[in-house]
Write a structure and sequence with these properties.
This protein is of the alpha+beta class. The protein has a three-stranded antiparallel beta sheet, with helices on one face. The radius of gyration is 17 Å and the shape is elongated.
Length: 119
């Protein structure tokens, strides 16, 4: 079995990133891991917060009805299909930025990729 890992050669000075060996995240199904690993300023990116709020709205996970109503008003009372499209659009943009940063870090030698083959 083949597993691919990556690591930053030096600690990047970020709360969500370190210089330990990590499994390279899958493109589909591990969006949060991909973004925390390679998106610049993940923890303070307003689009990530917005994406999380949209997901909470779509899944009826807001704990406070007042906050939910304020958010619905802020986004223009989008329907569920419109929310799904908005989520898809934001995810696509964030993935592209994460991929671009990953490639850039690889090119300048700040991360290394390690393949591990298991018999």
């Amino acid at each position: 079995m083949n597993k691919t890992y990556f690591r930053y050669k030096e600690h990047p000075g970020d709360l969500f990133k370190d210089a330990n060996l990590h499994v390279l995240p899958q493109v589909d199904g591990q969006l949060e891991t991909l973004l925390t690993s390679f998106l610049m300023h993940y923890q303070s990116d307003a689009r990530v917060t917005y994406l999380n709020d949209l997901s909470m709205l779509l899944n009826n996970e807001f704990e406070d009805e007042t906050q939910e109503l304020l958010f619905r008003k802020q986004i223009g009372f989008l329907s569920n299909p419109e929310i799904e499209l908005e989520i898809q659009s934001i995810e696509t943009k964030l993935k592209a930025e994460a991929f671009e940063r990953f490639y850039g870090l690889l090119r300048i030698g700040e991360i290394e990729v390690i393949n591990y083959y298991e018999n």
